[in-house]
Q: What sequence folds into this?
């Protein structure tokens, strides 16, 4: 299965250093999580009214889907497959910090409007993650959010939360 | 011919300079919004509705229709370039379209999509012109029981199309079905899995889920790549489909037009099912199905054609019966109401000028889209030359405010982020997001229709056999399953054989007219198939 | 454009307080009641764009803007089955700069059946903008030629006559459920995702009858002879079909009307409230409003805020026995 070919193609010379046992165990974590999710959903569905096949209640369809998750995850736990997977690296933590910065953006967006968090986010992503020069970073971080604000809020009338900074000008 | 003289009359309306201008404005806006992820035709038309109230009714509908079918092509651009599907039907395009981008063939993918869209759209409008009243009846014959059958067929296609293992596809489809049950129950209105969160009462938004699983996941993944991994910009090979690409896609475009036209008539879900069906057909007919999911051009040409054909034929129930078959058409319906025109069976006779003017404008609009998009392909793929860091930062920002604009709610921003993380973890653990997203679209229709059927029949399952439409679709599903079992055997048997024999066996399994489907010069690839 | 929208982000962030205080600081414009409206008014819409409610909101938005000398910006927010939009109106500052359209579903039925942070009483009604009556209809080939035939058939064969309703939580569905409970007449109630799906199923002959909003979409099918109206559900006959009797005339106590009311947060200053009410009253006779919404849906006589509120209060008492959380 190749969901992201860039990395898949890259990783063709797969790291064989991992011990086989550990790799197989690692492959079972995801289906185990799915299994737990399916079990929880099964309980949740039963708590809704089930009804019968002839007169289905709100819980019947969710129950069918939840049981499918449970059964299929059991099969996957038993046969985790051997296709190449992308390895977790120390860089994976970078993804977590990136996501955290996006969460901060959403929180700030609600508090002070679009412009300030957008500039901050662009500064971070362009300079730190993108490795752009300071000049490019500053120009793009200011111009980008301004243009987007004009397109979405001013032209298209999308009601952004009141902007602490631009609110006074636009 | 009455139809021809009416159509001629329609063209004289469509070629009115003002109307011509509005067709142009419509398709340009449509293409443009396709490039802004999250801002689909629904949001755009909602935003433009107030302006249309002051316009001439024909001009305003011509423009809104242009936005709609223009956005169908526009949505392709981000699906192919950035793996950001803005609507359900584009999810299928990402399978091979994004792979082609990775291989430096983005221009080819966009080019073939533009051509396919033009042909599919035009074929559908020709059908709309001459067969509309007859086909509108077919739409009506589809009751809840037939929709159950249709959605089961869709789910069958979803789980059998995935590039990964079948059981993982089934599992992910089930997760998608479960996630789609969040919100109010369609039949008795009680809240399900909302955990006291008010925004969840309306369910998770499709665009937020799809953008998260595909787009955001792909974008945040760049953070763990090494410098060397920034490969996209380095190789943009050819900008335009070669003669061979055209030849490879011809069959796919032809079949996609037919599938999209007929499936598109069905109210609700027509677009997704038609792209899925087209993809499945192409994969089935291909000489080497293993190429699919790895950048097969037919995998882009077929579904894109079908998608556009279905968006044109979706106008049939609206124009002939006054039944809007999706949200966008419902808004066009609303726009007509505002002008004091009620779309309904009388539209064709009472507002003949508007009816034929809009149809004629669709021929013109499709041609404009082709002329517009051919040079634009070159412009859009320049986007890939932008340094990855800049592209990623801007894409993320636009995705976030794009999903915000769907409901004007920051809740959807949380949804898109959560699904972005989920999508990233899924790609790390070898799960394909496509079955999840597609099942998420089909599931609610299946559940609602099943429960409606049970209410109508008083709990008897016989309704699925006694209703001719559902009986026919179920029969087709059985044939498909038989095909899968039978076809699978045929492919397994001649394991260590010569390429020519493989070709023979697939011909036997396929339907015969696949000679145009894929080029003849790909025998070197066939060996892969025998593994 | 100045817009006030503040949402508590998610529970547990613990910064909602800061958000609110910043809200107070940032929206610094001094809004005195005399020069209202001195900045754009947000007109919340709990439904998606394109439907009759949206048409109503937009027509009135434009007309009120003209009347009061300001702008009304319609903001569609269908999220949470309309609850999110209603919550926003309920929790907005009662200064007249946030108003909203609402109707039975989001205002009364939704808070009755779900745990929401608002109820009908958190709003100040400002008048009725439009009313959409309802009717029972069958397809042209139906064996039921009048409303009595349909209801008697349901009585004779309980649960076998299928009748479509536009949405599980629509007031039409709830009204039919109430009828079933009170009279013992039992239909097979088939909720659809809206009027469109209902009409399609009626035309295709997949359901026996429909209980549907008496809007132009049905009217055009009736004109074409594809759908036959059996009875107007209520006390007055439909303006579109004066020959068709009402349910009350026929001896069945079924009545419901979709009332599109204008609402603001409950503590709205009386001065601003009466300004807006006067505006709504004038708009009832506005040419554009009548043309866009449709003459027969715009009330001929003005129903003021207090009376509009009463309509919804009656609804609440009528449905309280059926809806429980």
A:
């Amino acid at each position: 299965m190749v969901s992201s070919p860039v990395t898949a193609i890259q990783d063709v010379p797969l790291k064989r250093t991992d011990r086989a046992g550990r790799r197989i165990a690692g492959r079972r974590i995801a289906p185990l999580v799915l299994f737990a999710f399916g079990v929880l959903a099964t309980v949740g569905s039963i708590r809704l009214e089930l009804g019968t096949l002839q007169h289905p209640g709100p819980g019947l369809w969710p129950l069918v889907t939840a049981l499918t998750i449970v059964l299929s995850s059991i099969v996957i736990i038993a046969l985790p497959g051997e296709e190449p997977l992308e390895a977790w690296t120390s860089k994976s933590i970078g993804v977590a910090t990136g996501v955290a910065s996006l969460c901060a953006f959403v929180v700030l967006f609600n508090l002070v409007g679009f412009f300030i968090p957008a500039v901050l986010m662009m500064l971070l992503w362009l300079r730190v993650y993108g490795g752009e020069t300071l000049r490019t970073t500053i120009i793009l971080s200011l111009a980008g959010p301004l243009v987007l604000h004009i397109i979405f809020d001013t032209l298209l009338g999308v009601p952004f939360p009141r902007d602490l900074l631009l609110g006074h000008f636009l | 011919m009455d139809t021809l003289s009416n159509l001629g009359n329609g063209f004289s309306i469509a070629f009115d300079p003002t109307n011509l201008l509005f067709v142009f404005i419509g398709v340009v806006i449509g293409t443009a919004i396709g490039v802004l992820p999250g801002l689909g035709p629904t949001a755009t038309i909602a935003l433009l509705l107030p302006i249309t109230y002051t316009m001439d009714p024909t001009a305003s509908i011509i423009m809104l229709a242009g936005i709609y079918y223009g956005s169908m092509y526009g949505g392709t651009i981000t699906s192919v370039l950035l793996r950001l599907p803005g609507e359900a039907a584009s999810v299928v395009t990402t399978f091979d379209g994004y792979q082609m981008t990775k291989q430096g063939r983005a221009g080819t993918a966009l080019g073939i999509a533009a051509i396919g869209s033009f042909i599919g759209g035009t074929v559908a409008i020709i059908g709309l012109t001459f067969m509309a009243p007859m086909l509108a009846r077919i739409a009506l014959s589809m009751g809840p029981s037939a929709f159950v059958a249709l959605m089961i067929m869709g789910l069958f296609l979803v789980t059998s199309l995935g590039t990964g293992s079948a059981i993982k596809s089934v599992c992910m489809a089930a997760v998608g079905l479960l996630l789609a049950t969040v919100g109010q129950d369609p039949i008795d209105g009680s809240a399900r899995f909302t955990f006291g969160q008010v925004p969840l009462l309306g369910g998770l938004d499709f665009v937020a889920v799809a953008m998260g699983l595909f787009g955001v996941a792909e974008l945040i993944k760049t953070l763990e790549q090494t410098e060397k991994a920034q490969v996209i910009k380095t190789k943009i090979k050819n900008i335009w489909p070669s003669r061979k690409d055209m030849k490879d896609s011809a069959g796919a475009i032809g079949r996609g037009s037919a599938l999209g036209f007929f499936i598109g008539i069905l109210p609700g879900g027509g677009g997704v099912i038609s792209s899925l069906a087209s993809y499945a057909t192409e994969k089935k007919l291909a000489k080497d199905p293993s190429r699919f999911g790895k950048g097969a051009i037919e995998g882009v040409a077929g579904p894109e054609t079908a998608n556009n054909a279905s968006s044109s034929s979706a106008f049939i129930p609206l124009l002939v019966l006054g039944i809007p078959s999706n949200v966008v058409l419902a808004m066009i319906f609303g726009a007509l109401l505002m002008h004091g025109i009620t779309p309904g069976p009388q539209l064709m006779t009472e507002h003949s000028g508007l009816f034929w003017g809009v149809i004629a404008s669709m021929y013109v609009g499709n041609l404009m889209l082709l002329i517009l998009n051919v040079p634009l392909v070159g412009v859009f793929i320049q986007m890939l030359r932008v340094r990855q860091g800049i592209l990623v930062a801007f894409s993320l920002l636009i995705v976030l405010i794009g999903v915000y604009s769907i409901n004007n709610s920051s809740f959807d921003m949380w949804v898109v982020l959560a699904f972005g993380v989920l999508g990233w973890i899924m790609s790390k653990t070898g799960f394909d997001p496509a079955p999840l997203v597609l099942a998420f679209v089909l599931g609610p229709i299946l559940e609602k229709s099943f429960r409606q059927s049970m209410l109508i029949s008083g709990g008897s399952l016989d309704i699925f056999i006694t209703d001719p439409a559902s009986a026919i679709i179920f029969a087709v599903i059985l044939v498909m399953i038989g095909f899968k079992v039978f076809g699978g055997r045929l492919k397994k048997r001649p394991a260590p054989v010569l390429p020519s024999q493989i070709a023979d066996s697939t011909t036997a399994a396929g339907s015969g007219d696949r000679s145009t489907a894929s080029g003849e010069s790909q025998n070197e690839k066939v060996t892969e198939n025998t593994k | 454009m100045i817009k006030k929208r503040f949402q508590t982000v998610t529970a547990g962030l613990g910064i909602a307080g800061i958000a609110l205080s910043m809200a107070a600081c940032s929206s610094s414009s001094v809004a005195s009641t005399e020069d209202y409206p001195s900045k754009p008014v947000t007109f919340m819409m709990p439904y998606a764009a394109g439907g009759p409610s949206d048409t109503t909101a937009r027509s009135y938005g434009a007309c009120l803007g003209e009347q009061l000398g300001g702008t009304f910006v319609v903001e569609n927010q269908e999220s949470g089955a309309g609850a999110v939009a209603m919550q926003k109106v309920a929790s907005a500052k009662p200064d007249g700069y946030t108003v909203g359209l609402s109707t039975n579903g989001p205002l009364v039925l939704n808070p009755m059946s779900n745990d929401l942070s608002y109820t009908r009483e958190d709003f100040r009604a400002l008048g009725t903008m439009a009313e959409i009556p309802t009717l029972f209809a069958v397809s042209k080939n139906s064996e039921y030629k009048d409303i009595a035939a349909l209801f008697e058939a349901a009585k004779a064969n309980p649960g076998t006559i299928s009748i479509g309703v536009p949405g599980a939580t629509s007031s039409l569905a709830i009204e039919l459920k109430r009828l079933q409970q009170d009279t013992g007449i039992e239909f097979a109630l088939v909720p659809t995702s809206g009027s469109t799906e209902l009409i399609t199923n009626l035309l295709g002959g997949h359901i026996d009858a429909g209980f549907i909003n008496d809007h132009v979409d049905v009217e055009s099918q009736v004109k074409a002879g594809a759908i036959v109206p059996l009875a107007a559900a209520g006390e007055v006959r439909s303006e579109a079909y004066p020959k068709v009797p009402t349910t009350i005339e026929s001896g069945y106590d079924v009545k419901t009307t979709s009332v599109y009311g204008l609402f603001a947060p409950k503590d709205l200053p009386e001065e601003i409230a009466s300004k807006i009410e006067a505006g709504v009253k004038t708009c009832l006779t506005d040419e554009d409003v009548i043309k866009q919404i449709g003459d027969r849906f715009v009330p001929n006589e003005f129903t003021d805020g207090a009376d509009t509120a009463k309509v919804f209060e009656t609804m609440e008492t009528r449905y309280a026995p059926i809806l429980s959380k």
